[in-house]
Amino acid sequence: MLIAEVNGERCKATKGAKGICPYCKSEVIAKCGEHKIAHWAHKSRKVCDTWHDKETEWHLMWKNYFPESWQEIIKYDQTTGEKHIADVCTEKGFTLEFQHSAIKPEERRSREAFYRNMNWVVDCTRCKNDFKRFIKNIDSSSIARAIFPIRIPSLNNMQIGNIIEVYYPEDIFQKSWLDSSVPVIFDFKGLNQLDNTNDIRNFIFCLLPLNVNSKRYVIQISISNFVANAKTGSWEIFVNNQTDILKQFIENQKRVIQQYGTRNTRHRIMLS
Ligand SMILES: [Zn+2]
Three-state DSSP class for 18? Predict the structure, then answer.
């Protein structure tokens, strides 16, 4: 973890420091090596929040992209008394959960129900096949095609990403995430240093919870743009807006198909 209580204050780990875990109130000690991100570890081995994924350098890196005051926020459910640590939670209550390990569907669902306003960020560097499968299929036009460029009007209409329509999502992403009820962000870069700025792993791919005849929609945006927008709070608004735009787009498509269908039926009636 990145934050512990020291004399009642939220504190980052510094060499030799001791603190208290804000969640379970047991003792934690600072781990400040040369190569790893400074963090706190429970003095005795214990499972703290039962939902907590075994914390890796990848988790620490992602949490550190965001302001300290948003990191590791304890969230309560007033009615059930349940409490959990959100990896990152904004002042407005938007939660990001960073998931490295595989997660059981029941646990995924209960976390989505608990946080509600959340996105997952999934480490796709844990299984080597994830990126192989992704790169093999994402460019193939029969499986995925870009339908809208994402532009920022205030920056000379600069294009910062794409919305991609995906026909066989199971050929591109880990199957276990396809049923999620919230947006799922796939990170293929992880801790890798990429020399080529055009490397596709510099982008995150955000699968939206919209399913139309098994077609799915994915936002492709650079990691730096994602982090910058998430930090100002505009990512959450952006994802919701894009979802609304897509719903409209899908409705229009349906209408066109229906009109075409009606015209054909009318034509057939006239002929018979
Ligand atoms: Zn603890």
Answer: strand
Q: Say how many Å lie between the CA of residue 80 and the centre of ligand 1.
A: 20
Separation of first and last alpha carbons in the chain: 74
Q: How far is the CA of 136 from the centre of ligand 1 (A)?
A: 41
Q: Which residue has the higher pLDDT, 264 or 156?
A: 156
- Diameter of the chain measured on Cα atoms: 89
User: How far is it, in rounded angstroms, from Cα 116 to Cα 235?
Assistant: 16
Q: What is the pLDDT of residues 133-173, one digit of tens each?
A: 999 888 765 566 677 777 766 666 777 788 888 888 999 99
The β-bridge partners of 185 are 121, 206
What is the per-residue pLDDT across 110-136, written as a single tens digit (0 to 9) for each? 999 999 999 999 999 999 899 999 998
Q: Rounded to whole angstroms, how far apart are CA atoms 169 and 133?
A: 11
Interior/surface letters 188-219, b for 16+ CB within 10 angstroms, e for the rest: bbbeeeeeeeeebbebbbbbbeeeeeeebbbb
**Cα 140 to middle of ligand 1, angstroms:** 46
CB neighbour list of residue 64: distance below 8 Å, 6 or more residues apart: 2, 37, 71
- Rounded to the nearest whole angstrom, what is the distance from the C-alpha of residue 177 to the centroid of ligand 1? 28
What is the distance in A from the centroid of ligand 1 to the CA of 85? 10
User: For tokens 């077609």, what's the residue?
Assistant: 215
- Report how far ligand 1's centroid is from the alpha carbon of 216 (Å): 38
Centre of ligand 1 from the C-alpha of residue 73, in Å: 13
